[in-house]
Design a protein that fits this description.
Helix content: 10-25%
Structural class: alpha+beta
Oligomer: single chain
Radius of gyration: 26 Å
Strand content: 25-35%
Number of helices: 10
Number of strands: 29
Mean pLDDT: 93
């Protein structure tokens, strides 16, 4: 009897431990997740990892000048117009009198996101100009007190998100604040900006964070910090402490003060290998700006957006795609058109995006792959960008037993066979979708993929990524902080090389993707042939530009090929190299 009591007591204690809430962070730690276990983190991140697709909204007073100041178009991104144009505080604040979003319909915005297949929204509660899109007691520089609109725009958006089952997050510029006394990355340009940074943190940033975390029900689900200039640990700690008001909130890696956050945030690019072991999210504009600019019509195509989404999901990341509404509260029509087209594609292909994990393949010549694993069963979603003209699709290196193969769009079963080179599928003559067609491959066990060489893609080109290079000397592969490249290239004796296979020989042009402070010279050697290149002076090691090398190279027969990049000592300047692409030359 005593033993039974002991056993029952042990089981009761174990049950209580299992059901116990997450341990509170250490009393002396401002980090809300200081004591979080891996299992607790997985539970907290579950919805975000399954979502894969979200909407970023950059909206504020900067939508009034819309990229133009005193009749002159101000370069760079629209929401930075106050800084780029060096607009005095009094002049900039006057724009708020014209910020009157009478056409704002949060139901329309949320339904647009939902119908596009997006699962969450992140909106600018406060951007670098310090203007609050919400009712705040910490500053009069807000939509309620400084505009004719006179209402908090976040509350009705939260209600609409709640109504349609969309998660809502807030972007908050915690460090830069050009009107309330925060830092300025490019220096102050108006004596009125001369304030104390710590006063700003204590009197503006911390109180506003308390308001944002307390006044919107279950939201925000995400807190999106940005540009942590002058954010030492003491300042960051004060903001991190406030996050405890919203248990379970997800926050990114841009707080500063040594906080890694929950997510990496590559901006305007897709890292070649993702961030293994870290959650990550590529944020990207649809044109060239985040905040609305009336004359920016350089819109990405629907094809680019869909393939970006697939590419990101195939590397285990999320896609946060931006819209920049007008001062009246309207999302530009080109954004709406593209989101509706993406929604039509997602309606058919959503199973291949939501709750998927990264591809087991290092690269695929025809597209991408996303994965779902359940027990000893695995589903591979093959996203085919380039449909094979010979009606044969090879899945290179796949060793698993294939149980079934079908087209996701129609359910039609496909014939397949295993070969020494992988699995070969018989596919129809015509692709189900001109942008990206999905084949569902059910396999036995966890994916078992043999290493495969770099080969030509279906269009005959060869893509050589920085992550796949053999590095000689002191150069290194860098990823994170806007970088996904070969860097530390300070010694002109250092070289990088790639081995690849060509089965469709011919003449090729070579295109390099480079970032550099100053222009420099280098050469590319392929089979004894040399091409000279000049790195563009992008003035920033994270701003990449594609540049064509002069001339072409001839690969006359199917063969194994080595390409080497070598600096030219006379005229060399350090550069970051993201990729090279050999493209079949036009006759």
């Amino acid at each position: 009897m005593i033993e039974k009591i002991k056993s029952s007591l042990v089981l009761s204690i174990l049950l209580l431990l299992t059901l116990a809430p997450s341990p509170a962070p250490a009393a002396d730690s401002p980090d809300p997740y200081a004591n979080e276990t891996p299992a607790q983190r997985d539970a907290r991140m579950k919805w975000w990892r399954e979502a894969r697709f979200g909407m970023f909204i950059h909206w504020g007073v900067y939508s009034v000048p819309a990229g133009t100041y005193h009749g002159t178009r101000v370069p760079n991104i629209g929401e930075w117009i106050m800084s780029t144009g060096k607009i005095p505080m009094a002049e900039y604040q006057a724009f708020a009198k014209e910020y009157n979003p009478v056409k704002y319909n949060p139901d329309d915005w949320v339904r647009l996101a939902r119908d596009a297949g997006m699962k969450y929204i992140v909106i600018t509660a406060k951007h670098h100009d310090g203007f609050a899109n919400f009712d705040t007691q910490a500053s009069d520089w807000n939509i309620v007190k400084a505009t004719p609109y006179g209402k908090d725009v976040l509350k009705p958006l939260a209600a609409a998100c709640r109504k349609y089952g969309i998660k809502l997050g807030f972007y908050y510029s915690q460090a830069q604040d050009w009107n309330n006394g925060g830092s300025e990355m490019s220096g102050k340009w108006d004596p009125a900006q001369d304030h104390n940074m710590d006063d700003y943190i204590d009197k503006i940033a911390v109180p506003q964070m308390r308001e944002l975390l307390s006044n919107y029900g279950e939201f925000p689900a995400v807190l999106w910090w940005d540009t942590p200039v002058n954010m030492n640990k003491e300042r960051a700690d004060k903001l991190a402490e406030v996050l405890k008001l919203k248990p379970g909130i997800i926050f990114n890696n841009r707080l500063g003060g040594g906080y890694k956050g929950d997510t990496e945030t590559p901006e305007q690019f897709i890292p070649a290998t993702g961030f293994p072991g870290r959650d990550w999210e590529t944020c990207m504009t649809m044109n060239d700006t985040w905040g609305y600019k009336s004359y920016d019509n350089n819109w990405k195509s629907t094809e680019t957006i869909i393939r970006n989404l697939v590419d990101i999901a195939s590397k285990g990341g999320n896609y946060l795609l931006n819209v920049g509404p007008t001062s009246e509260g309207l999302i530009p029509e080109p954004s709406i058109e593209r989101l509706k087209a993406v929604g039509a594609w997602m309606k058919v292909n959503h199973d291949a995006i939501y709750a998927t994990t990264a591809s087991p393949f290092k690269r695929l010549p025809w597209g991408r792959c996303t994965t779902k694993i359940s027990g000893d069963e695995t589903t591979l979603y093959l996203h085919v960008f380039n449909w094979p003209a010979d009606e044969k699709l090879t899945v290179p290196g796949l060793k698993n037993i294939v149980k079934s193969a079908r087209l996701l769009a129609t359910g039609d079963q496909l014939k397949f066979k295993s070969t020494p080179y992988g699995v070969v599928l018989d596919v129809p003559t015509t692709a189900p979708d001109a942008i990206s067609s999905t084949i569902v491959l059910e396999i036995q066990g966890a994916p078992d993929v043999a290493a495969t060489p770099i080969i030509q893609e279906s269009d005959g080109s060869v893509l050589l990524l920085a992550s796949e290079a053999a590095l000689h000397g002191g150069i290194q592969y860098e990823v994170g902080g806007g970088k996904d490249n070969i860097g530390y290239w300070t010694n002109p004796a250092d070289t990088a090389s790639w081995d690849f296979k060509v089965d469709r020989p011919g003449r090729f042009t070579v295109i390099a993707d480079i970032a550099a402070l100053d222009s420099g010279k280098f050469e590319v050697t392929v089979g004894g042939q040399k091409l000279q290149g000049t790195s563009p002076a992008t003035k920033d090691y994270t701003k990449f530009k594609r540049t064509n090398l002069s001339g072409t190279v001839e690969i006359a027969t199917p063969s194994d090929v080595t390409l080497t990049v070598t600096p030219i000592a006379d005229g060399w300047n350090p550069m970051n190299l993201r990729s090279l692409r050999l493209v079949p030359a036009r006759n």
